[in-house]
Write a structure and sequence with these properties.
The protein has one domain. Helices cover about 75% and strands about 0% of the residues.
């Protein structure tokens, strides 16, 4: 769902501003998330939680980090050397593990660290295989310039913000009590975070880019599609965060890259290189290692 949503956002961003494109995912996804909340509440029999300051602050931190990271990711589409930026955004996997261990309550075992590194290695191999020589040189530019240029800086900032969003949102679900059902905790967290994004970003856009709201009418088809796929993806992420360490969740989520390569091979008849096949095997092996953690 995340891969499909990102592709649709890239298309929408051609005719709408970066922040407007970011706002669409929250605004049009909120109705789906409210249905999820209603279903989770009925299924678990639990009511409205106590909105403790820690829960609200962690959710707000996650919501803000997510908005800024998504905006940077969309901005990255417009920059030259997008290939390098794409690869560097994957560093959020290691950043989540490091920051979570140092500043949050993440407890990662030795096998967990090994699995994270194996998955990271597999993803890098797949990206190198897909992007080929463009990773190392684009129009004659030196590798050092690519890695220190603006796309790389934006990508690393994006990865850092995504890491904080995962960790804050994981912490928010824990504030609702680990003894409570994970679906109930994830539903309240994702709805509160999305409401915060809709209200705060909506007010900001009303002041700075009011034209965005007029553009949504003619584009409601793709906007609704982005909202639906974003909501379904968020339900998956938040539910997983309610169950397990953010770093583990993010690592297993890298299986998305394998799905994307498989789809490109089956439906678009694109050739998969030996390096990509090695990356697929490495990523799957790393994901399977989490069954042993």
């Amino acid at each position: 769902m995340q891969a499909v949503r990102t592709a649709a956002q890239k298309q929408l961003n051609q005719s709408m501003s970066t922040m407007g494109t970011t706002y669409v995912r929250s605004l049009f996804g909120l109705p789906v998330l409210l249905l999820f909340l209603g279903g989770a509440t009925l299924y678990t029999g639990l009511g409205v939680p106590e909105f403790k300051p820690a829960f609200v602050l962690h959710t707000a931190g996650g919501a803000l980090s997510q908005v800024l990271a998504t905006a940077l990711l969309i901005h990255l589409f417009r920059l030259k050397n997008f290939a390098v930026g794409t690869m560097l955004t994957k560093s959020d996997l290691v950043l989540t593990a490091l920051i979570g261990t140092l500043f949050f309550t993440e407890k990662i075992t030795l096998l967990g660290w090994l699995a994270i590194l194996v998955v990271m290695g597999g993803v890098i191999l797949m990206l190198l295989g897909k992007l080929g020589a463009t990773v190392f040189a684009t129009r004659g530019e030196a590798l050092s310039h690519l890695l220190l240029g603006r796309p790389a800086q934006v990508a690393l900032a994006c990865a850092l913000l995504f890491s904080f969003s995962y960790l804050f949102l994981r912490a928010a679900t824990l504030e609702l009590g680990e003894q409570n059902h994970f679906l109930w905790r994830s539903a309240w967290t994702v709805v509160l975070a999305t409401v915060m994004q809709v209200v705060c970003l909506g007010l900001w856009l009303a002041r700075t880019e009011p034209a965005v709201f007029r553009q949504m009418g003619p584009m409601r088809g793709i906007a609704s599609f982005i909202g639906l796929t974003s909501a379904l993806g968020s339900i998956g992420w938040y539910t997983a965060f309610a169950l397990q360490n953010a770093a583990y969740v993010r690592a297993v989520g890298q299986i998305e890259a394998v799905f994307m390569l498989t789809i490109s091979w089956l439906y678009f008849r694109e050739r998969i290189t030996a390096l990509e096949l090695t990356g697929i095997a490495c990523t799957i092996a790393g994901v399977l290692m989490f069954r042993l953690v």
